[in-house]
Design brief:
Layout lengths: L9 E4 L15 H14 L3 E5 L5 H12 L6 E7 L11 H8 L4 E7 L2 H8 L3 H17 L3 E7 L1 H7 L1 H14 L3 E6 L6 H14 L37 E6 L6 H10 L4 E4 L13 H11 L7 H4 L2 H12 L16 E2 L2 H9 L17 E2 L7 H10 L9 H16 L7 H11 L8 E12 L6 E12 L2 E9 L2 H13 L10 E9 L10 E8 L4 E8 L2 H30 L1
Parallel strand pairs: 1-2, 1-8, 2-3, 3-4, 4-5, 5-6, 6-7, 7-8, 9-10
Antiparallel strand pairs: 11-12, 12-13, 14-15, 15-16
Helix pairs in contact: 1-2, 1-12, 5-7, 6-7, 8-9, 13-14, 15-16, 17-18
Length: 572
Amino acid sequence: MTSQAPNPIWIYDTTLRDGSQREGLSLSIEDKLRIARQLDQLGIPFIEGGWPGANPKDVQFFWRLKEEPLTQAEIVAFCSTRRPHKTAADDPMLQAILAAGTHWVTIFGKSWDLHVTEGLGTTLDENLAMIRDTIEYLRSQGRRVIYDAEHWFDGYKNNPDYALKTLKTAMDAGAEWLVFCDTNGGTLPHEIGQIVRDVIERLELNPENQGRAGFEPTLSPTTETEPLETRHGASLHSPRLGIHTHNDSDTAVANALMSVVEGVCMVQGTMNGYGERCGNANLCSLIPNLQIKLGYHCMQEEQLATLTQVSRSISEIVNLAPDDHAAFVGRSAFAHKGGIHVSAVERNPLTYEHIPPQQVGNQRRIVISDQSGLSNVLAKAKSFGHELHKQDAACRQILGRLKELENEGYQFEAAEASFDLLMRDALGQKQQHFELKGFQVHSDMLQGIGTPYSNAMATIKVTVNGEDILEVAEGNGPVSALDAALRKALVRFYPEIGTFYLTDYKVRILDGAAGTSAKTRVLVESSNGKQRWTTVGVSANILEASYQAVVEGIEYGLLLQSAVKTAVEQKV
């Protein structure tokens, strides 16, 4: 992003540090590098890489980026102020920060007198000295400093005069950005707005200049000829304001937006809102709200159009399922289920969509369920390339079959691949790649010294092109063994199956009162490395339900591969 854009807002991503503090989330060095490059391509100006010296992983991460730098983003090292009653020059923690070799360093310091006396166990004056000494030392070593005022809002509410002294100290020491941190996530938007206004007034800052005046275009962070005074957004004599919010009160995004409206021009957050406890401000919501709704400039429009893809890719890297109901980037963000809604949105999307989904790289989805009418079926068929009309017999056949199956427990809202196969069957377009003759599954549970060991073996017989195939395979469970045996039987005829793999497997009990005889619904998500699709199976026998979903997953994968081959052949 260049600072010549009108109303610029600098986005500061802390997914690699604050985001990784989420319970159950762990990143390898390769994971961090992949995420950093995705954020770089998205156009994020500041990427916080971690705390060098805190662990060997972060040290290696910064080394790797020295060897292969990012294209436009500034990678930022993160650290606390020096320890009490030491000098910054003698603190080994700061030596590790310098060794990381970044242009920018983010230092966090205490704003709340409670944390100074109870947490650090030192005096209020010594805390000010720690802030001053740390920033002045880093500036003397050629580093540019972002100062994160930890627990700022709690500190200001408790002792505003002292909290302001910490900010003034950081300003005088040479910090170029002052970032208000709602570390506990307990402040509400009306409080945020009032406190930001108070600070701007008491520090005699001009909110009109926060995002505009004195900025020059940014160059690549690897361009050594670029003067420090012009790189990424702040001059040495006019500190800018930033905001860093947590989501403990479910107001992190609202708090950040309120801060920007009051004059802040750096917004810190994480992709998908990852973070400790309830998470951080979600950049996937903040960026479109800032750029599309409020008219600020965060990135180029073509970069914004990749936001959904980057969000989902990062979900894959961190091995957490994407939130289907996330604003802007979720699969359901532009999904329409009610027949009246579908009919209206087909005529004019403004009736039920607050923005065009393609602005953030998402797409409209028409959800199919027992609440669907002909409008849903027609719209869904069109999205899969099937041209249907209300008067077509197949259209009503599909709707009738849909309602019949959902009454039995099937759910096509989350299994659109199965619904496409259902439509193709009604239209006489479904190809039968193989015929099941039967299968058996044997499962062992071995008890002994140590951890119990389980193993399963499946035998399956299928007919392909008139040839009977009998195969056997093992797995760590009955479904795994059955899946392996089926793939083994088919891969000779359909080699592309070798690229298919399961990415998710969910079981839902439909009638719990029936106990172990209950009917189950199985959802299987499959992938070929480029696309994902979900299929469904229902039966009182969990293996049969699983087999239905797995088979349709393979059939749909073959259908997708066939479509790709046809497209390539037509181009040739």
